[in-house]
Structure formats: structure tokens, C-alpha cells
Write a structure and sequence with these properties.
alpha+beta; Alpha-Beta Plaits; 2 domains; five-stranded mixed β-sheet; 21 helices; 18 strands; 14% strand; globular
């Protein structure tokens, strides 16, 4: 085993209120300079929607992430993988013109307003206005796009209905979603996933991108970067940006200076909904290629399996032999990420089919359960029922009765297939399992705090979801009552070991600590 440590994150989508405080905190700290105006290392998208940049999930357009080679693909065996739109040959062919790059219109052209016109305009009968001007050309522009242009389903016919995750839904499911589009949506906050198999690192011709050995954070060396922008193509999440002013690529650095000081990243520290969790996980780096090459229907489970139990004596011993500090191991043992992802099985990665093995996991949103959706036989029936517990719109019944408060998961407002396209590579059973756990915790806590749900029903729900009352209370605590130190278990930084790693020439086996092998420290990595 090649045990390494990785800073990992969980976002609990049931708690996100879409306030964008995280985005503004990140913007104010890291991307408030010229050339970075359009860079949103942290952004919050409304789903269903096309996101930022537009349709970033559609890899038929952007060619991001990895794909399986023909050998071994489709026969249940692990085959090699290759970058979909980057790499040595493709990079050389596209080095002067890359057709797979998002253009500025896919983001938005950075702009400001001519505020001086409000002050310097001569007296007249008309009210002066501050027209928008491009920060790139300095000319007047018409604003057509922005980082949260589709916020709260604004402009849904143009955006929500073009969501790539709708591709596998039946016509009936699509119709139901768009009947509900004005009352049912959720927020999807996104940052760099700091993947175990990052396409951006593999694609860079100049070697400017690298993954830190001590904590797995993916960074860009600005002195080495030559602005080839292959990383922008290779990242399927489009979380690497090109600074048009400096000619360098930039990305989320997970606020590593803050982490090294024991502080949470700015987006997480400022989160109003307290949806964000950060901690250390231990994983077996020897399995990365096999996991990334797995058949699509096995990707998520094998991704989970690569993360190991930090309390296992064999794992602890192997981690120590590989240079992982005792304090890091203790942090992994207290990590909320391991609990959500492995111990409780409640969080899933975003778009595993991209094969980058992202280390940001999401607890899927259960969404409001105060209404379920069904088709009315006729308007008279709808009107009759509407006088009591339901209201009717375009032949659809929305049940808001107390009896339906804990309706089945399959009657949720959002089709399971839509959630599965986002979080489980299309496997609806994985999403259903996690939503059942969320529902079971709600039922259990309703029994405990309100008492209008019988103990038998609460215990039955927990049993069906594979939880115990103790686990449900622990989930409830970490979800609703957790303090700062419970949500962010940050390992101590070891500057002395980092300096030693850079100076050490390697032992007889070529190991240089922190998981680096074959004397990479000698090359300044």
C-alpha cells in the first residue's frame, strides 16, 4: 500500500441557501485583480441549469476529463485511460488553436460601468446613465451573461431546459420538472475538487500544475506556467482559468496559506448555511489507475474503496512508513469527511464519469418534502381535492397534506435519474440509498423532538435505511449542531518536514517522504 493523505471536502446541499457569500469571500481575497475579473474559483449554480461556464458538464463540447481506451472498455475489465481533449499528441496539434476551450462568451466579458458619466455629464433633460464597458476592449458592451445569470431559475427556458443532466429523463419526468421549475430547485456550490487523478496536472506541457504530496492540494506554479491553457480543456469541471492580463493559468488553491495556519478556507469559514466540511482522508495511491480505469458502473464504489479506515492498524503503520505525520493521522481519525463518505455512506462525488476521482463530495439534497406530485384525472377532481389539501395546475396535483409529509423517495420533486446523472454516474440506487438515510434521520428526529411520529415508524425507517438511532443522532449533530472544530478538522502543518523533504536526497529506496518516490524532491517538486 502507498498510503497518502488528502485534504477532502463535503458540501451538504440540503443546507445551501444560495446566498453566494462563499463566492464573494473568495473573490475578495484571491481574484480581485486585473485579468481575474471573470474568475470565480467558488461559484454557486442553480440546478437545473447550465452552470458556469455555460454547459460545462457537456464534454462533447469541451472534451474535458478522461476516457477509457478501446482495450478493456465495455467488457468489465479495467483498461487504460487517456485525456479526452488534451495530452501530448492532441496538445501539440492544438497548441496554437484549441477548439475545445470555452470562449469568453461562455463565461462573460469582464465589464465595469462608466460611473464618471453620472458626474461629468452636462445638464440636460435626460437622466444620465453609467453604461457598461468592457474591461478588455474598453468599448461599450451589452451584458449577456454572468456567473449567476440563471440564479433561482432566472431565464429558465434558455438555461434550465438546456441542463445536460436532463439527457436520460423520460418525457414524463421532464414535463414534471418543468411544471415545478418555479417552485423546486437546489443550489450546487462548486470549487476545485483537488482530484486524485487530476486531468489538469496530466495535461500541462510545461509541468506548472502539481499536486502537493503532503495534503493533495493541486496548485499552479506561476513562474513555470506558459499559458498553453491545456489545463482549462482537461479540467472537466472548468475550474482552471486563464488570466488574460498576465498570460498565466490560475485556479482555486484551497486557501492553503490559511490551512497551514490552522484556519478554514475563506469560502468555508464564511458559509452562512454551514454546509461545508473539511478534513483529511487516507487513501491508497497504488489503486488510482485501476480505479480511474474502472467500468462506469463501478466507478463510484471503487472511488469510495480507495479511501481507507484511518483507525486500521495496518493503514496507520503504512502511512507512517510513507512519511504521513502522526498529527495528520489523528486528524484523519476525527475527519467529518470519512464519516459522511465512508462510515455513514451519505455523500457522493460530482460526475464520477469524468474519471478524475474528485475529492469534493456532496450530500444530495432531499429537497422540501411538503409536497408530492401526481397527475389529476380531470379538472373537477383537482378542484375537489384542492379545497382540502391540494392545489392544481395544468393537470398536475401538488399534495401538501400532513399525511404525505414523509412520502416515498420515488415521489420526490426531482426525478432520481436527474440526481443520479449528477452524483452517481447514472446509478439511481446509490442516490435513493442516500436520500433514504436523510429521510430516516428526519423521521427519527421528528419522533424525538415533536413526538407525532411513532417509535415503531421511526425505528422502521432507520432499519430500512441501514442506520441505528445512535448513527442518526450523530448525523443530526454534525449536520445541524456541529461547532467550528467539528466541521473543520485541519491537520497541523509541518514546515520542518517540508524543508527536510526539499533538502533530502532520498534513501536507498528513493523515498523522500510525504508520499513522493524516486527522488522527486531532488527535482524541486
Amino acid at each position: 500500500m502507498d498510503i497518502r493523505s488528502q485534504i477532502s471536502m463535503v458540501f451538504h446541499l440540503d443546507k445551501c441557501i444560495g446566498c453566494h457569500t462563499c463566492s464573494v469571500a473568495c473573490k475578495n481575497i484571491w481574484t480581485d485583480r486585473k485579468g481575474a475579473e471573470y474568475q470565480w474559483w467558488n461559484n454557486v449554480e442553480t440546478k437545473p441549469g447550465t452552470g458556469y461556464p455555460g454547459k460545462w458538464e457537456d464534454q462533447d463540447i469541451y472534451k474535458g476529463g478522461w476516457e477509457k481506451k478501446s482495450n478493456g472498455a465495455g467488457n468489465g475489465e479495467s483498461g487504460d485511460i487517456k485525456l479526452k481533449g488534451a495530452g501530448k499528441r492532441k496538445g501539440l496539434g492544438n497548441i496554437f488553436h484549441n477548439p475545445n476551450l470555452p470562449v469568453i462568451d461562455d463565461y462573460y466579458e469582464p465589464f465595469t460601468y462608466k460611473y464618471l458619466d453620472l458626474i461629468e455629464s452636462p445638464a440636460g433633460d435626460d437622466q444620465p446613465t453609467a453604461r457598461p464597458v468592457s474591461l478588455i476592449t474598453g468599448k461599450h458592451i451589452d451584458i449577456k451573461m454572468g456567473p449567476n445569470w440563471d440564479d433561482d431559475l432566472g431565464g429558465s427556458p434558455d438555461y434550465a431546459r438546456n441542463d445536460p443532466n436532463l439527457k436520460n429523463l423520460t418525457p414524463a419526468e421532464r414535463e414534471a420538472m418543468f411544471q415545478l421549475e418555479k417552485m423546486a430547485f437546489f443550489y450546487l456550490p462548486r470549487i476545485c475538487n483537488h482530484c486524485l487523478n487530476p486531468g489538469c496536472v496530466a495535461s500541462c506541457p510545461s509541468g506548472a500544475l502539481y499536486k502537493r504530496g503532503e495534503d493533495g492540494i493541486v496548485l499552479v506554479n506561476q513562474e513555470v506556467c506558459r499559458g498553453w491553457r491545456m489545463c482549462v480543456t482537461a479540467c472537466p469541471y472548468k475550474k482552471t482559468y486563464y488570466n488574460w492580463h498576465t498570460g498565466k493559468s490560475e485556479k482555486c488553491i484551497l486557501c492553503f496559506p490559511r490551512i497551514e495556519a490552522g484556519l478554514a478556507p475563506a469560502c468555508m469559514h464564511s458559509c452562512v448555511g454551514r454546509i461545508r466540511y473539511l478534513g483529511v482522508v487516507l487513501y491508497d495511491a497504488d489503486k488510482i489507475q485501476d480505479v480511474a480505469s474502472a467500468p462506469e458502473d463501478e466507478l463510484v464504489n471503487r472511488h469510495m474503496d480507495i479511501m481507507l479506515d484511518p483507525n486500521d492498524p495496518e493503514v496507520i503503520e503504512a502511512a507512517k512508513q510513507n512519511g504521513v505525520a502522526d498529527s495528520t493521522i489523528r486528524s484523519a481519525q476525527a475527519s467529518p469527511i470519512y464519516k459522511f463518505v465512508k462510515e455513514w455512506g451519505m455523500a457522493l462525488p460530482l460526475h464520477s464519469e469524468f474519471r478524475t476521482l474528485p475529492m469534493l463530495f456532496y450530500v444530495p439534497p432531499l429537497l422540501p418534502v411538503m409536497a408530492s406530485l401526481s397527475r389529476a384525472n380531470n379538472a373537477e377532481q383537482a378542484e375537489k381535492l384542492g379545497a382540502k389539501t391540494k392545489f392544481w395546475s395544468d393537470d398536475w396535483l401538488y399534495d401538501t397534506s400532513t399525511e404525505e409529509l414523509f412520502g416515498t423517495i420515488d415521489q420526490a420533486r426531482f426525478p432520481l435519474q436527474y440526481m443520479a446523472n449528477l452524483f452517481s454516474a447514472g446509478d439511481t440506487d446509490m442516490v435513493r440509498e442516500r436520500l433514504m438515510k436523510l429521510m430516516a434521520v428526519r423521521i427519527h428526529r421528528r419522533h424525538v423532538t415533536v413526538g407525532d411520529v411513532s417509535k415503531e415508524k421511526a425505528d422502521g425507517a432507520l432499519h430500512e435505511a441501514g442506520l441505528t438511532a445512535e448513527m442518526a443522532d450523530a448525523i443530526y449533530y454534525l449536520t445541524a449542531l456541529a461547532k467550528f472544530d467539528d466541521r473543520f478538522v485541519i491537520p497541523a502543518a509541518h514546515r520542518e518536514q517540508a524543508i527536510e523533504m526539499m533538502e533530502f536526497t532520498g534513501d536507498k529506496k528513493g523515498n523522500t517522504g510525504f508520499g513522493f518516490k524516486e527522488g522527486t524532491a531532488q527535482r524541486g517538486l
